[in-house]
Amino acid sequence: xxxxxxxxxLPEGESVRIEIDDTTPAIAVFHTESGLYAVDDTCSHQDASxxxxxxxxxxxxxxxxxxxxxxxxxxxxxxxxxxxxxxxxVGVVDxxxxxxxxxxxxxxx
Length: 109
What we know:
Blueprint: E1 2-6, E2 14-18, E3 27-32, E4 35-40, E5 54-56, E6 59-61, E7 68-70, E8 87-93, E9 96-100, H1 105-108
Antiparallel strand pairs: 1-9, 2-3, 3-4, 4-8, 5-6, 6-7, 8-9
Domain Rieske: 2-99
GO molecular function: 2 iron, 2 sulfur cluster binding; dioxygenase activity; metal ion binding; monooxygenase activity; oxidoreductase activity, acting on paired donors, with incorporation or reduction of molecular oxygen
Organism: Streptomyces gilvosporeus
């Protein structure tokens, strides 16, 4: 798992974008009233950073065209997005938020 930040450094209602390496897409980590979530940072509809969107409960709204994604599953809940974003495992160990990036399907080929 990759350390992100201390939980007190990511207040409820905030998000952070992390970049791991040149081969892994950036990940947006959200701290909402419903918990901690991590998804690919780029909206599946168009090139927009979801970490700059508006998160509430288990959903994030893309700042570009208002596509809404379920942070639990990555599924879009309204147009214009039609494809899901990838979700990632999030955990807290000794007060530090960690993310385990999901394996990219194209990396398995």
